[in-house]
Each structure stands twice: as C-alpha cells, then as structure tokens.
Amino acid sequence: MREILDQIDRWQGQGKRVAVATVVKVWGSAPRPLGSKMVISSQGEMAGSVSGGCVEGAVVEEARTVLDSGEPKLVHFGVSDDTAWSVGLSCGGQIEVFVERLEAPIEQLEAAIEPPEA
C-alpha cells in the first residue's frame, strides 16, 4: 500500500489526475483478493494490481474514461465475458472492479490508513 501512496503523491505533485481501481467482488479463482488496488495516472502510468496482470490494460482504459468524465464505473471481468478472454483472464474466476477518480490529497489518504500517534 505504501508504494501506491508514494506514487499517488508523486503524480499529484506533478499535477496529474489519478484514478483508483479496487477489486470489490470476487467469484471463484481470482488472481487478486478482494480489496486489491491499482492507481492510474492521467498519463496512463500505473502502480499496484487488480488482477496480477490479466486485465490491467483494460482497467487502464476504463480509468482514462473515468478521469475524463469524472463518473465512476463498475467493470466486470470473467471467463464467460468475451472481453475477459481477450485481455487474458483465463483463471476461471470473475472480478468486479470499481474505478473512480481520486480527489483527496495524499495527506488525507495517509491519515485514513495510518493510526494516529498516541
């Protein structure tokens, strides 16, 4: 998680917009667990993973749409889905990925995941 935060900080510091993709539902044999995250910059750069490489390219394209429109999107990938086969999700599982534009500054994100000092 720290590497993703560091990357978000770097991109925000460069004035880039950032999208976050999160695995929100998993069926069967999925390559990454529920809650896995990937961040995507407005330049198409990425950090983290939602599928171990199977659908990352498709998620980057969805993130670009979300960054342009500002509208979040729920995307489904699975072996019964033609798109999933074309991007390589052949592990037998299915995943749903929620993609949203990140509006929070890095300080807010860090405070949300790190416990306050006593």
Indicate the percent of residues in helices: 25-40%
Alpha plus pi helix count: 4
Terminus-to-terminus distance: 22 Å
Content of β-strand: 25-35%
Describe this structure in words.
Strand 2 and strand 3 (46-48) form a beta hairpin. This protein is an alpha+beta fold. The chain has helices at residues 2-13, 56-69, 82-87, 106-113, and strands at 18-27, 37-41, 46-48, 73-78, 94-102. It has four helices and five strands; from the N terminus they run H-E-E-E-H-E-H-E-H. The chain has one domain (2-107). The longest helix has 14 residues, at 56-69. The mean pLDDT is 83. Strands 3-2-1-5-4 form a five-stranded antiparallel sheet, with helices on both faces. The chain starts with a helix and ends in a 5-residue tail after the last helix.
Q: What key phrases describe this protein's structure?
A:
118 residues, 5 strands, alpha+beta
Q: How would you concisely characterize the structure shown here?
A:
This protein is an alpha+beta fold and 118 residues long.
Produce the secondary structure layout.
Blueprint: H1 2-13, E1 18-27, E2 37-41, E3 46-48, H2 56-69, E4 73-78, H3 82-87, E5 94-102, H4 106-113
